[in-house]
Design a protein that fits this description.
heterodimer, A: about 240 residues, alpha+beta, 2 domains, 5-stranded antiparallel β-sheet, 10 helices, about 55% helix, elongated, B: about 210 residues, 7-stranded mixed β-sheet
Chain lengths: ~240, ~210
């Protein structure tokens, strides 16, 4: 198991795109010897990405019925962060009982374990393994694999964030009009003194705007900040 | 008794909620003079309370707050990363098996066993969720408490001198620590386990036949 896991991590390291990642995540199903696996990520701007092995009919039915509203796995993991066996979730309501029955009839296994993940900047993800077996077998399975599952969940999430981050600019906090003004003038070749004078602010205040803009852009210095803002189309000059 | 409550569920315990944030104001603002925000109703809250943290709370007989601490996973936003990065040489801890513990607070009426019971609650969280360590920032006054309870941190970095010295540390979870804290707190294994399972659910078969 350990060797297989290491080999998996090595292949994951090589993943360059979300398609590569998807193939590796699907491969995990064999590695962990479970029937279903789900990785679902929601980033700070609300964009979603999911890899899952449930039957397409069930997935489209779930989306159509908006079952995320009543799914005890979603309700029990969204906003929380402790890993949880599905048995410990609240299945007592009538709607979740009938939801469960439908899910089981559609090929979802009767056992599940979910790991909620909190990432940087409000990003959120959920990693789930799902299987069909009796309670004792599942208890032995989770006992043996829980630590590995927690680590692999976070490893997948980090890789997904890394790939997303290299595909497009990091989600940034929007710059204030004053911050944009300062960067715009610097991008036009003004000195700090000239820029401050044009905006009728002190050079000290200008430096404060510059510093917060640099932070928001994740830039190393002023030149880097101007370059980033320009390349992201935030400045009009 | 020990309560484990996510912020989103706190409103179901109005008295506990109100007295916890008031006791925090008393401890951190009035007594220790920290630079924390206290609202007009005398409650101390910060931006991390808004991230739906998990609180471990000692509830007194009358339903009020006896002591508490707050957990957030280190893979998300933490105080250690955002306010105390200088204690970690600019490399904040981010690990799925390490959660940060902040706002360790003792109520004004808290007896000597409450701090042990709270630390026990922290240990239950770690063992229950397969964590390896708790991460925390602490000041000089806490060292004595940790020493008395027999569960001290490995120090990752420190800053300042004397009473003003603050440090970043990792507490390792383990069964031996839990046993020691059970003894100091004067609580049984079964009772502590019961409180934890009451909060996070017992194993129930999903289907009749299994």
């Amino acid at each position: 198991m350990r060797e297989k896991l290491e080999a998996f991590i090595e292949r994951m390291e090589q993943a360059k795109s979300l398609d590569d990642l998807q193939a590796e995540i699907l491969g995990l199903r064999d590695l962990y010897d479970v029937e279903n696996l789900v990785y679902h990520s929601v980033n700070s701007t609300g964009e979603q990405y999911a890899v899952l092995t449930y039957k397409p009919d069930w997935v489209s039915h779930y989306i159509e019925q908006d079952y995320a509203r009543i799914d005890p796995v979603v309700l029990g993991c969204f906003q929380r962060f402790n890993p949880v066996d599905w048995k410990r979730l609240d299945w007592s309501s009538k709607s979740s009982k009938s939801f469960l029955k439908e899910a089981l009839d559609s090929g979802v296994g009767n056992q599940g374990f979910s790991v909620p993940i909190r990432g940087p900047q409000g990003q959120f993800a959920l990693f789930t393994v799902n299987h069909n077996c009796n309670d004792d077998a599942w208890a032995r399975y989770t006992e043996e694999h829980v630590r590995g599952l927690i680590l692999i969940a976070h490893f997948i999430n980090q890789k997904a964030l890394e790939i997303e981050g290299s595909d497009k600019p990091r989600p940034v906090r929007p710059m204030s009009p004053r911050e944009t003004d300062v960067l715009t003038l610097l991008a036009m070749g003004y000195s700090r003194g000239q820029a401050a004078e044009s905006l009728s602010i002190s050079e000290h205040t200008l430096r404060a705007y510059l510093e917060s803009a640099r932070n928001k852009l994740g830039a190393m210095n002023t030149t880097h900040a101007v370059a980033r803002a320009l390349s992201q189309g935030l400045l009009v000059i | 008794m020990l309560r484990y409550i996510y912020a989103s569920d706190l409103s179901a315990y109005p008295k506990l909620q109100e007295t916890m944030f008031k006791d925090r104001a008393h401890q951190f603002h009035t007594r220790l003079g920290w630079d924390v925000a206290v609202d007009t109703r005398g409650a101390e809250r910060d931006e991390y309370d808004a991230l739906n943290p998990l609180y471990v709370i000692w509830e007194m007989r009358d339903g009020s707050h006896g002591g508490s601490m707050r957990f957030l996973p280190t893979t998300g936003r933490t105080m250690a990363a955002e306010h105390f990065a200088f204690l970690a040489d600019g490399h904040p801890v981010s690990n799925p098996r390490i959660w940060e513990c902040t706002r360790f607070c003792l109520g004004r009426q808290a007896g000597p066993r409450v701090s042990a019971a709270l630390m026990l609650g922290g240990a239950e969280v770690g063992l229950g969720f397969n964590l390896s360590h708790a991460l925390g920032v602490f000041d000089a006054r806490m060292i004595r408490i940790y020493r008395r309870l027999g569960w001290g941190p490995v120090v990752l970095g420190s800053c300042g001198n004397g009473r003003d010295r603050i440090s970043l540390g990792l507490w390792e979870y383990g069964q031996a620590v839990r046993n020691k804290l059970l003894k100091t707190a004067g609580l049984s294994d079964e009772l502590s386990r019961h409180w934890f399972l009451r909060a996070f659910g017992r194993d129930l078969a999903l289907t009749e036949t299994g």
